Amino acid sequence: MSRTVFLVSPEAPVRVSYGPASARKLDLRGLRLGILDNGKGNADHLLQFVAEGVKALLAVTSVVSRRKASMSTPASGEMLDQLAAEADFVVSAMGD
Amino acid sequence: MLRASAACEAAGVPTSSLVSEGFIGQAAATSVGLGLPHIPVALVPGHPNTQSKGELRRNILEVTVERVIENLTRMPAAGREKPEPGARDIIFKGGFNAVNRYFYENELSDGLPIVPPIREAIDAFLRFTSRDPDEVLGVILPDSRAATVWSVAVNAVMAGCRPEYMPILVALIEAMCDPQYGVEHSGNTPGSETLIILNGPIIKQLGFNYTQGALRDGFMPNTTIGRFWRLYLRNVAGFLPHKTDKATYGNTWRVVLAENEDVLKRIGWEPNSVEMGFRAGDNTVTVGRYSGGGCFPSVSGSTPEQVLPYVADSVLKYHTWQILSTTSHGGGKLRPLVVMSPIIAETIAKAGWSKSDVKRYLYEHVRRPAWEFERYLRDWTMKGTWNLAEDVRLGRIPKVFHESDDPNRLVPIVWEPKDFMIAVTGDSLRNNAYVFAHQGYLGYPVGKKIELGVEWERLLMEEGR
Predict the structure, then answer these.
(1) In chain A, what are the domain boundaries?
(2) Which residue of A60, B148, B287, B288 pairs with B445 in a disulfide if CB–CB is 3.0 to 4.6 A?
(3) What is the number of other CB atoms lying within 10 angstroms of the CB of residue A1?
(4) Facing B144 at nearest CB: one of A5, A16, A46
(5) Whole-number Å distance between alpha carbons of B243 and B32
C-alpha cells in the first residue's frame, strides 16, 4: 500500500480527573502514623522497620496498622475510613 | 496498593507508598491513571523477598525512611493533563510502512504490522452493532480510559478482524470491564494471559476452528480475535511492557478456543456457555486468565475410572502457587480448566458420566497433603503467617481444609466440585487433553452473551457468508 491513508487513534478518552495530593501540613511534634500492609511477602517486616525509622526521627504518638485480606484486591472502605480517621500520615507497602 | 494511597490522599491523609526498586517505573505509570501523577513513593532497594531481615532493616533505615519523611513533609508536584487527540481525530497520514512505523514507535501496536484504522474500515465494523459508537462499556484501569464501542472497532481493524466479528468483540470488552474478571491485574508479575472460550452457532457461522489444532494460529477468526484482546489491553486499558505491564516473562496472546458443540450434543454434556449461566444455543464468550498449563498426551483407558486418574494428576501438577486463590487471600476463586479432546469426553460419557460426575471425581482426587499445600504459600512464596487451620477457624474457607491436625491429610485445591471447568474441543480422534492453570481472582472466568443485531443475517449475506 503506497497511497496515503488517514488514521484515527486506537486509544479512548481518559475518564479520570487529576486531583491534587493532600496538603502536607502536619504537626511534626505529635504524629499519628498509619500503616497499610498489602500482605506481600516480608511487607510486615519492612513496615516494622519503617515505623522504627520514622519513630527515631519524629514524635510519633500512635500507630494504627491494618493488613489487607489480599495483596491484589483494593483495601476495604472500612480500613480506609479507619486510616483516614486515626492517622495523620499513611505508609502503604509494598509494590513489588 | 497505589489505589489505597490515592484514596487516602483524596481523603486528606498524606501517604508514602513503598515500592521496590524494580517497580518504580510501574508506580509512576500507574499513578497517572489514578489521577495523581506524582503520587509520593519511597524506594525500597532491591527486592524485599530476597533479603534477610538484617539486610532489609539496613536498607529501610538507610534509604527508605529518609524518603518517607520527605513524602510526609514535601508537597508533591501537581499533575498536568496531557493533551490527547479526540476519538475521531486523524492522528497520522502516510503509506503502509510509515503508518506501521508510527504506530510501533508510539507503542500503539504489538510489533506485528497492523491494518491501518481508517474511517471507512471502522464504519464497516460499526454496521455490525446496534450500539452507539460512543457508548461506554466500562472504564478500565490502569489508564482509566472509557472503553467505547468506537475504540472496539478501531482496535478490531488494527488486529485484522473482519467486520462481522464485531458482536463478539463488544461482548468481549463487556467481559473485560466486568469487575468480577479483574482486568486491573493484567500487568501482574506472573504474566498470565487470557483465554477466550467461544460457544454457540456463531462458531460455525463465522468459520472458527473447533477441531484439530484448536489452539494453533492459522484460522482468521480464532487468531485475529485473540490478537484484538491484547491490542485492546495495550491501547485502551493501558498495559505496556516496561511500564504498567510487569510480566516477568509473559505469554503471547492466545487464539480463541471454540468448543465442539456437535460432540457435546451427541454425548449429552452441556457446553461451557450453560456452565456460565446461559442457555444452550446462545452465542457466548467466556474469558479467564491462565498462567500456563500444557497438553498431557495419550490419556488411555476405556472407562472413566481408567481415564480420570491421569487427568486428576495433571490438574494437580499444573496448579502449585495458584492455590493462593483457594485460601482466604483469594476467596476460593481458583477455577482450573480441563480441555478434553472429543474422544476422551465420549469415552467418559459412554459410561453414563455427566460433566458434574467428572467434576465430583476431580474434587475428590485432585488433592495434596496439607503440609505441601501450606509450603507453597507460607514457605516458598507468600512468607506470611497464614495457615489452613486458622483460615478454617475464622470461617474464611470450607471446613474440608482442616478436618484434622494431621499434616498428611489430603485437601482439595478448590472449594467445590463446580469450580472445575471442562471444555471439549481439539482433534476428535486423538486422546490428548490440556490443563490451563488458572490465576483465580486475578482473572476470574466471566461469560457474556453475544448480542446479534436484527440485521445480522442480512449483513452477513452482504459480507458473503
Answers:
(1) 31-93
(2) B288
(3) 10
(4) A16
(5) 11
Residue B250 has pLDDT above 70, yes or no: yes
Look at residue B296 and tell me if it is in a domain. Answer: no
CB–CB of B167/B129 below 8 Å? yes
CA B373 to chain CA centroid, Å, is 24
Interchain contact B206–A (C-beta under 8 A): no
Distance between CA atoms of residues B384 and B391, nearest Å: 13
Residue written as grid cell 508537597: B75
Instruction: Write down how long chain A is.
Output: 96
In this structure, are residues B142 and B29 in contact, taking their beta carbons and an 8 Å threshold?
yes
Q: How far is A8 from chain B (nearest CA, A)?
A: 5
Task: Provide the residue range defining the domain that includes B13.
Answer: 2-73
d(CA A92, CA B19): 9
Contact partners, residue B318, CB within 8 Å, separation at least 6: B292, B293, B294, B336, B435, B436, B437
Dist CA B444 CA B213 (whole Å): 25
Predicted confidence at residue A21, as pLDDT, reads 77
Tell me whether residue B20 is in a domain.
Answer: yes
Grid coordinates representing B151 are 475504540
What total number of domains does chain B contain? Answer: 1
* Contact between B145 and A44 using a beta-carbon 8 Å cutoff: no
- The mean predicted confidence, pLDDT, of chain B is 93
ipTM > 0.90, yes or no? no
Strands of B310-365, DSSP E: 337-340
B28 in a domain, yes or no? yes
B65 domain residue, yes or no: yes
